[in-house]
Amino acid sequence: MTLRSAILALAFAAASCSISAQRVTIGIAPTYDGGGDAFGPAVAQHLNVFLYEDLLDTSSYFPVLLSPGGVYTPLDTSWLVDYIHDRSDVDFLLVPTLKPIVSPEHGKWTLLIDLVLLDARTGDQRGVWTVSEEIRGSKTVLDNTPVEAKDTNIDTKFSSAISSFGGGFRTASSRRFEKQPLGKATEHLSEEIRDTLAAHLPASAAHPAPSPAYGEPCPMRVRLTYAYRHAASQSYMLLVNGLDQSTALKEGISTFSAPPGPMLLQFSLNDAPYKMAKEGLYQLSTVHSCSASTLIVDLGPSGDAHPKWE
């Protein structure tokens, strides 16, 4: 797994150099928390990022994190297919669901992730399977001890926006999520998903994947819009490849420099329109090529996020 710290941007740029000509593009739906356990939101949120990084680091897959909005449920995958109807680059949809824990004797719990693989064009099922990981019940409690001011690897500003996710991707804790037992178990689940994915794909699935140019960082801007309301967000928290890019918003626009290559965005909205079914934390990916300088992320009334470069 790549480092999830201030050097994450460099790690993503390095990983992007391994993008080959033939890869299967996998759209990853938000992991649905169907377990009802206190640690469930943290596992669901982090699993998507871990899986994105694991697949990005292979020569077989090109992952795309999707954000279909707050109305999304794995019980109705037709919404997910409709959500990506204009995404011709996505070959398959991976739908993960965190299930209720299984509690055997001797204090060991079993974390279960149900997975459904869909054809992105038709919505037909291509595979259904489950991965699991054991962990002691006492180890599922997250360490949320406040950080000391000297800990520069933790983004305490952004943590307040995602504190409901059990500490969040950028956790205001003395130990980052991936260093805790629950985080390590979540990483193992991600690795198992990566290793079992090929068994459910047709042999001829690969085709040319994005091949962006690589080079020095170039200036770019991010805008979050509500086109259906003819409005734009003026207040939000934003991480781009692990770096906080929302400290100097001007008229709702985040301006910064970033290297070409895969780009992971994580953001929360502070001024979403009334009744919009937003996600608590958005996690989506795109590819930065420096050929376009502005990334527009438009959010629909169902909270569905659609990235577009201009």
Q: Biggest sheet: strands, sense, closure? A: 7 strands, mixed
What's the CATH class label of the largest domain?
Alpha Beta
Overall pLDDT metric: 83
The CATH superfamily of the largest domain appears as: ABC-type transport auxiliary lipoprotein component
- How big a fraction of the residues is strand? 25-35%
Report how far apart the termini are. 32 Å
How many separate helices?
5
The CATH topology label of the largest domain is Rossmann fold
* Approximate shape: globular
Poorly predicted sequence stretches spanning 5 or more consecutive residues = 2-20, 145-174
The CATH architecture classification of the largest domain is 3-Layer(aba) Sandwich
Strand element count: 16
Essential attributes:
single chain; Immunoglobulin-like; alpha+beta; 17% helix; 7-stranded mixed β-sheet; Rossmann fold; 2 domains; 310 residues
Description:
The protein has 310 residues and is α+β, with helices and mostly antiparallel strands. It has 2 domains: 152 residues, Rossmann fold, CATH 3.40.50; 92 residues, Immunoglobulin-like (Sandwich), CATH 2.60.40.180. Helices cover 17% and strands 32% of the residues. The strands form 3 sheets. Strands 1, 2, 3, 4, 5, 6 and 7 form a 7-stranded mixed β-sheet that branches. Strands 8, 9, 12, 15 and 16 form a 5-stranded mixed β-sheet that branches. The chain has a 4-stranded antiparallel β-sheet with strand order 11-10-13-14, with helices on one face. The N terminus is likely disordered.
